[in-house]
Write a structure and sequence with these properties.
Blueprint lengths: L3 H13 L1 H12 L3 E4 L6 H6 L3 E4 L20 H11 L8 E5 L3 H8 L7 E4 L8 H22 L5 H27 L6 H9 L6 H16 L9 E7 L5 H9 L2 E8 L3 H4 L10 H11 L13 H11 L4 E7 L3 H17 L3 E6 L7 H13 L1
Parallel strand pairs: 1-2, 1-3, 3-4, 5-6, 5-7, 7-8
Bound molecules: iron/sulfur cluster (SF4).
Iron/sulfur cluster binds next to helix 4, helix 5 and helix 14.
Length: 373
């Protein structure tokens, strides 16, 4: 049996070098990859076609070329994606899929500068009515047809059903891993937890599941150590770069759960299996996703979900990781603050800027927050 460190190192290598993961997949299968723009797409369709869905979660480049195409107040992650796009980082993809829940993504889908074709679709915002599922299924049918044309393969219902099972198994493994990380914060540091989860965006899902399950078994064999630091929940689009997560570790914060679009929101809802109508099952999963700033819901359940999560994981606080210039997340924030204050949930907001190389302000704020807690 391999050691915890060696399994985590393998996942960290994938998370930090998606291009190599894509090249390795091509070498092994003879098939390429399809770019998945944040945040939600029916990745199962790409998997069912035998291609690798590749998450496009930006990078940590200094922004220069992207300034010609995006205003400075476009969100940090899309500045990074545009920069990478202009540098040709996505030229080897077979296609790129966009869902367009915010203005920035709408602009990005129209300004695509990469060599490969794009597929754009819409998720309905009036999500809780039956007609929403019919609409979403219609959109997914169009996406599937475009994949078939571009990739030159037939995507059968049987293959989609199988991919749904592969994805559900991965979601279950990720939920189990996230809970285990909360029990072993001395071993699974914030940066390691993030790398294990992020790697799922660049690996064939059954391979990622196998590695995560191996990691879970290895961790379970070790003795639990008492945790003397604070426990926190992260919410937002994403918590990167690692410099930010290292500040959490340095200040003895353990991440016991998350509500990040790049992490927990991706695996908290399973898709119904063996329905005979896999596209409708995928559509219903969008309807069932709650508490995300991109999934419109006038009831705004996110605050309550986070308060319940804080109770469940005995967390000391919630850290709102605010993606720089992300409108949907900024609109949720005033509501969250009021609900947290009312429920007595301690909280702090920190800024996520992928381009940042220095985190002195965040460091000082988190140090003070740790002392307050
Ligand atoms: S949801 Fe926020 S972070 Fe994502 S593309 Fe839109 S503005 Fe950017």
């Amino acid at each position: 049996m391999r050691t915890i460190d060696s399994i985590i190192a393998e996942l960290q290598a994938v998370a930090s070098n998606p291009k190599k993961a894509m090249d390795d997949y091509k070498k092994a299968t003879g098939k390429g990859a399809v770019g998945i723009m944040p945040v939600y797409s029916p990745e199962e369709l790409v998997h069912a076609a035998g291609y690798l869905p590749m998450g496009m979660w930006g990078g940590s480049k200094s922004i220069s070329k992207a300034r010609a195409f995006l205003p400075p107040f476009a969100c940090s992650i899309m500045q990074e994606v545009m920069e990478l796009e202009l540098e040709g980082a996505y030229d080897d993809l077979e296609a790129v899929v966009f869902s367009v829940p915010c203005d920035t993504l709408k602009c990005m889908s129209q300004k695509w500068k990469g060599k490969c074709p794009t597929i754009t679709f819409t998720h309905p915002q009036n999500r809780k009515i039956a007609a929403a599922n019919v609409f979403t299924k219609g959109e997914y049918e169009v996406v599937k047809e475009k994949f078939e044309q571009i990739l030159g393969v037939k995507i059968t219902d049987e293959a989609i059903e199988n991919s749904i099972k592969v994805y559900n198994a991965n979601r279950q493994a990720m939920r189990a891993f996230s809970d285990l990380a909360a029990e072993y914060p001395n071993i699974i540091t914030p940066a390691k937890r993030h790398a294990v989860i992020k790697a799922r965006h660049f690996m064939e899902k059954s391979q990622h599941t196998a590695l995560v399950n191996e990691l879970i078994e290895a961790v379970k064999k070790t003795e639990k150590q008492p945790w003397t630091g604070k426990k926190v929940i992260l919410t937002g689009i994403m918590a990167e770069p690692d410099g930010l997560l290292d500040i959490l570790q340095a200040n003895n914060f353990a991440v016991v759960a998350d509500d990040l679009a790049q992490e927990g929101r991706q695996f908290r809802v399973d898709v119904e299996e063996n329905t005979g109508d896999p596209l409708m099952a995928l559509a219903k999963a969008w309807q069932a996703l709650d508490g995300c700033s991109l999934a419109t819901d006038p009831e705004k359940p996110r605050g309550k979900m986070l308060i319940d999560m804080a109770k469940k994981y005995n967390a000391d606080a919630v850290i709102v990781c605010m993606m720089k210039f992300c409108d949907p997340e900024e609109w949720d924030y005033p509501i969250l603050i009021q609900e947290f204050e009312k429920a007595g949930v301690k909280n702090i907001q920190i800024e996520v800027d992928q381009e940042a190389t220095s985190y002195e302000q965040t460091k000082t704020r988190l140090q003070s927050f740790s002392e307050i807690l």
